[in-house]
Amino acid sequence: MKLFYREFGTGQPVVILHGLFGQSDNWVTVGRRIADQFHVYIPDLRNHGQSPHTPVHSFPAMADDLADFIEEHEIENPVLIGHSMGGKVAMTYALENPDKVKKLAIIDISPRRYPERVTHTQVISQMLSIDLEKMRTRTEVEKILDSQITDKRVQMFILKNLYYKLHGKLAWRLNLDAINQSMDQLFDSVSSTNQYAGPVLFIRGGKSDYVPDSDLALILSMFPQAQIKTISGASHWVHADAPEELCFLLSSFLERDCIFGH
Q: Which domain holds residue 24?
């Protein structure tokens, strides 16, 4: 599968993987900052953004896509950065290909299985319930979402997936049906008996419950060199809530200076 991607900079390769309902565009600001000293690739994962749609949506399948992407672009020894769903994809790839990853940075996700998140299933249901055939403007869709989703940030995040497929014809970039059918797999754990012994940084939001202290033993059993940093005041959307702090932690981990204001 040929993934759509954005590319910035030169040097040591870094691949950034977005989360569920996201796309490469969400990480351009962080990517451009890192690109001052790295060669940054930000792909759209399958069924997201401008990448192809397929009925299968699982961590092993997305890790295989990443393997193909790395091979296709002749990327050697990359640093992998993954947020949420993308973090589990990065972990899966690193555990299966430990000699092919230089470093691993995982943002606000643990390798464990998660209980069903009502927020995720509600978002899918609400998006599926909107008949885009009857919508002519983004404002019409926004009004419907405004009546269903109280969090403005989540609204805007969802609306970034809306585009004009044809003149006057709106569509979602997400493959909602495939994601909806695969939701249980997306709550699943990272399944591997291997270890990744390279450098690993887990970054969690201080206001997020995705990586509690109770997960640390599991993390260290799979990633024995892992260190965990917390950004106080940040939610699960760390890159949106605290871009400067995130940039600082990533740059320190990557042993480069943080470039601000790009």
A: 5-113+190-253
